[in-house]
Amino acid sequence: MIEINDVSKNFAGIKLMNLTIPDGKIIGFLGPNGAGKSTTIKMMTGILPLDAGTIKLNGFDIEKEPIQAKQHIGYVPDQPDMFLRLKGIDYLNFIGDIFEVPETTRKERIEQLTTQFNIYEALQDYIQTYSHGMRQKIIVTGVLLHDPDIWILDEPLTGLDPKSAYMLKEMMREHAAKGKTVFFSSHGLEVVEQLCDEVAIIKNGELIFYGGLAEMRKQFQTNQSLEQVFLELTSDE
């Protein structure tokens, strides 16, 4: 479960955000560029401090209990250009060491996931030689390696080829079906409409809607697509 209570961040204009995300759901996090999506995600993962409020991940406060909280999450950033001087296999072993993944389990998961994402043969290469899509795949593999309860993904499908994007979406569905949580931001509204149980929409740092698509259509008395409703809600006209 993710609990965001009275959270604000002055430089991003985020004002008293409140959002509770239950287990077993896929949540799409939507908003125009500059609305505060990535800032919110960075506060959720402990990268940025909160100016006010609290964020709890499976009951652990991200600021007061950061180690315990981070043990429950896997995070894919919007830019996968990290640890470029490491080989792919060294990066995955580094992640495995941090999260204390047993050696046998680690080896099996690395082989399975990198084979599925078609990067197994590149594990001995340096990440700086990878394409953007390959970098995205190695970061996603690292997230899945320790099987965290909560996935927090910032534009996770960007740069993935259609087959890999399909596999990741299926993994997201399977993760939620196990009673766990997937929270991801995306500009792909059709994907969100097909995949998500609920959506959270942010505009100018404020949460303007949270709920299911049926609830959204009922509230705004429309049968329009998510894309059409989103554009109307976030328009400055």
Automatic annotation (TrEMBL):
This is ABC transporter ATP-binding protein. Keywords: ATP-binding, Nucleotide-binding, Transport. It comes from Virgibacillus halodenitrificans. Residues 2-229 form the ABC transporter domain. The keyword ATP-binding applies. One of its GO terms (molecular function) is ATP binding.
